[in-house]
Amino acid sequence: MPTHAEILTSNALLNDTTTPLISVFVGATSGIGKLTLRALVATGASTRIYLVGRPSSHARTQPFLDELHTLNPRATVIWTEAEYSLLSETRRICNHILAKETRIDLLFLTAGYAPMFTERQETAEGIEITQSLAYYSRVLFILGLLPALKAKGEAPGRVVSVLGGGLETKGGVVLDDIDLKRPGNFSGPGAQRQYLGLNSVVMDRLAEENPEVVFLHAWPGWVDTGNVHRGVREGTVWGVFVRWVLAPLIGLVAIRNEVAAQRYLFEATSAYYGGGGVEWRGKGGVNVKGEEGRNGLFLVNYKGECTPNLKAMESLRENAREKVWEHTMRVLDQYLVK
């Protein structure tokens, strides 16, 4: 496991050559995405970043954009507006970025929130909103931008999806109701288990089919990003509990923001995970196939440590992957570029 000192040493080596030249951040108007984006800009490197944010986030994000420009005038952060809970909007933004860029070095995905003790809420496209954000939209961003992620560059393109990598269980995916539509199947904890399992299953297949790209599915642990309030109705019993009990508790045990920012910057740029990025000397991370020093899918915990979860991933690969893939492709089919 990389120590915090080793992470800081690696991040200090980021410059115009080792920093991702072109990045796409989805969901970085708050939380871990925002922390990582600021840390990337703070390297001082010349880099171009597309910040994909919802229309309702633009006004409150403008001061952050101004801060980034002051922090590093050599970095170009391009506000890219999209209601990315809608798959049609996700496809539009992928096409928009591909029309401008032939190569993408980093795709960083953090959009979404935990649907704790709330009922199903569907988008205009008929998909439960938290599942669209945490799963379908993320997969569509990867598939839509894959041609640019695979384009030849100084290092392999990299995808970092922050949700729950390493927490998979052998039976953690409900295969006969993947979208959790049946009464009793949708709940906060159940949805979280489902979405993190779905992400790992599909990213496992994508990593096999695209060995020139590095995939990370990360679990952030406790970070006080404020997202615990997302989807919570004020005045409800759960809302009161979150405000007066859960949120203060998270504040007490959470990883400091500056520590989390450096860890995710490391995950986005270090050759510890696969064969590209800032050079790593010594034992590297192990992917979900148990391989060290090779590309693939890496499940990463809140310390930056690889947790391959080999038995669970082997079971999911054998028993769930193809069914999940076929279902996902049916849902995404009309939004894929043909």
From TrEMBL:
<dbReference type="InterPro" id="IPR052228">
    <property type="entry name" value="Sec_Metab_Biosynth_Oxidored"/>
</dbReference>
<dbReference type="Pfam" id="PF00106">
    <property type="entry name" value="adh_short"/>
</dbReference>
<protein>
    <recommendedName>
        <fullName>NAD(P)-binding protein</fullName>
    </recommendedName>
</protein>
<dbReference type="GO" id="GO:0016491">
    <property type="term" value="F:oxidoreductase activity"/>
</dbReference>
<dbReference type="InterPro" id="IPR002347">
    <property type="entry name" value="SDR_fam"/>
</dbReference>
<dbReference type="InterPro" id="IPR036291">
    <property type="entry name" value="NAD(P)-bd_dom_sf"/>
</dbReference>
<keyword id="KW-0560">Oxidoreductase</keyword>
